[in-house]
């Protein structure tokens, strides 16, 4: 699928830190409980660190105790792309930025999440940039 923001991998490598590139472009995962936004309570909009697309609002962020920032809904359903992920012998749903195709994390569905949608978008902090309200 063509993305609105489409760059050669060499350009992504030049623009992103090695850790950002590993997660955003190679579908890596940052270690649990180490991310910048895991415990953040600041209000604002979380953007894609690679392209600046608005992805999640802070009012949909909740404490899931999973080690990564968790949201129960994207800012707009068209902001993210959901793909089947069969890596590591599991079947999961990968979450990507719909604007640039960068890997953000995974979404999990089911009872037990204290959210209006029964979903947990488990997103790598390094995939995000928080723009606080008022900025």
UniProtKB/TrEMBL annotation:
Assigned keywords, A-Z: Metal-binding, Oxidoreductase, Zinc
GO cellular component, one term: cytoplasm
Entries under Gene3D superfamilies matching the protein: Peptide methionine sulfoxide reductase (2.170.150.20)
GO biological process, one term: protein repair
InterPro entries: Met_Sox_Rdtase_MsrB, Met_Sox_Rdtase_MsrB_dom, Mss4-like_sf
Catalysed reactions, as listed in the record: L-methionyl-[protein] + [thioredoxin]-disulfide + H2O = L-methionyl-(R)-S-oxide-[protein] + [thioredoxin]-dithiol
Single GO term (MF): peptide-methionine (R)-S-oxide reductase activity
This enzyme's EC code(s): 1.8.4.12
NCBIfam families reported in the protein's UniProt record: peptide-methionine (R)-S-oxide reductase MsrB (TIGR00357)
Name of the protein this chain belongs to: peptide-methionine (R)-S-oxide reductase
Organism this protein belongs to: Streptantibioticus cattleyicolor (strain ATCC 35852 / DSM 46488 / JCM 4925 / NBRC 14057 / NRRL 8057) (Streptomyces cattleya)
